[in-house]
Amino acid sequence: MKSEISEAGVAHDEVHDFETAAKQTVGQDTMDQARLGAEAEHNLRPLAAIRKYPWAIFWCLVVSMCVVMEGYDTNLINNFYAYPTFAKKYGHWNEATNNYQLTAPWQAGLSNAAGIGCFFGTLVNGFLVTKFGHIRVLMASLVALTGLIFIVFFAPNIATLLVGELLCGLPWGIFATTAPAYASEVLPMSLRVYMTSWTNMCFIIGQLISAGVMAGLVSNTTEWGYRIPFALQWFWPVILLPVLWFAPDTPWHLVRSGRHEDALKSLARLRPNATEVELRDALGLIVYTNNLEVQMSVGTSIWDCFKGFELRRTEIACVAFAGQILSGLNYAYNSTYFFQQIGLDSKTTYNLNVGGNSMALFATFVSWFCIMPYFGRRTTYLYGMFAMASVLFIIGGLNARTENDRVAMSQAVLTLVWTFIFQLSVGQLGWAIPAEVGSTRLRQDTVCLARNAYAILGVIAGVLQPYFMNPQEWNLKGYTGFIWGGTAFLVFIWAFFRLPETKDRTFEELDILFAKRVSARKFSTYKVEAFRDDAALYKVQSQQSVDAGGKEV
Prior knowledge:
- This protein is mainly alpha-helical and 553 residues long.
- It is 72% helix and 1% strand.
- It has 25 helices and two strands.
- It has helices at 12-26, 28-43, 46-52, 54-65, 67-79, 84-90, 104-132, 134-154, 158-186, 189-217, 224-231, 235-244, 251-256, 260-270, 276-295, 310-326, 329-333, 336-341, 346-371, 377-398, 405-424, 426-437, 443-469, 480-498, 507-515, and strands at 92-94, 99-101.
- Strand 1 (92-94) and strand 2 (99-101) form a beta hairpin.
- The longest helix is centred in the N-terminal third of the chain and has 29 residues, at 104-132.
- It is globular, with a radius of gyration of 24 Å.
- The relative contact order is 0.14.
- It is found in: Membrane.
């Protein structure tokens, strides 16, 4: 048996060798437990899973609530540019617009400061979680953030504010990448997509809170009009820290660390209604999957994400997540500045902002109950991206007549329609897909790389977007829709050829499908019969096959 996987791919016989070696490594008892655990995963429906694993859901909700702070502040800073007291404090009087404005370079800097901080926080998070576990890293990050908020609250000038946003981004990057990885490791397969995408819901909750706070304080003519929104960020660490002290770490992390008994105890805490046999079966599946990936030479370093078939998994995670930016997020989602530039007054602007965030929250629930149970990740992502591209092109076309108030209002409403579609599809799955698609041994690193791909493009978009919109720069207004509509359409084309279907697939099944380099368009129909007693443990029941060179068919 070969001990390493070549860059060219993995042949059928080699995959069978890995499976046989994994079986021999874990022993027959663990193999039987793994088989029963996999059957239980496939047979467990969402409602039954909710009744069976209430504490696992609870801890996912708590961990993901850390992301509320990032959603709150990123929405805050991007929508402060049209905020009168904030613009007066940190901007300059503009004769052309007859109001205070921040220059485009400072807008770009503030928009991207937190993103740059998130990039570096995310970069170290994979290493930290591998060494210390999810919970301890989260708690240390909350303590650090509590101190860093003082910088943005007391910032006497725009340069200090920028530094504060940059430093706050470090723990935010940790929150945003830990939450979906934690959810994917403590929940059964039927609930995986809901709680990994719950991270996105937390962003929306944070954005909705900030929109409401700004709408309530927009008429305040003192410095507290913008300081109070900053101060409210202290609320979350005070609430979350004492609760997280009691949170269990994930059984997958404990198995990777060689602590099998601790992993069993963690499973018992996460699944209190499960029997001893069910817990042993669940642990057996985790141990078997981990050993299968060890036999496939899947490491735990971030560099392993770029080796062999892991490179394809990393590409899918990164592009799926970065697709949120390329779909027009910086333009259509944080839209108060756009509303101002097309002539809407401050009150209308911030009321529309509250309405947009409320619509986003509603769309998330619609997605959970009407789309996720019935449609696959691939289908939802494809149709969502195409619909958003279409809306952006329409906004761009309408810009030819923005002197008409009704046309301007139509553009504003279409950005809300875009927001609704975004949260029905890409807004949710941009978080869920990276948490599902990576190997279990590289899950945290895969999520971190995907988040950084998002962050890099977010910085680029954050630099360009103010220049697109600022009346002192390119002043494109609604024509910006043509630019982001074009990038959204390109992601649609990529997804058609490269995005596989991960719905109803356990992690060991995904390992085999990627190892065999199955075409993305055939993932949902490719038959995998697991845990056979002969050498071909995962004999593929399909007319399609992969040649010995690992080419897609």
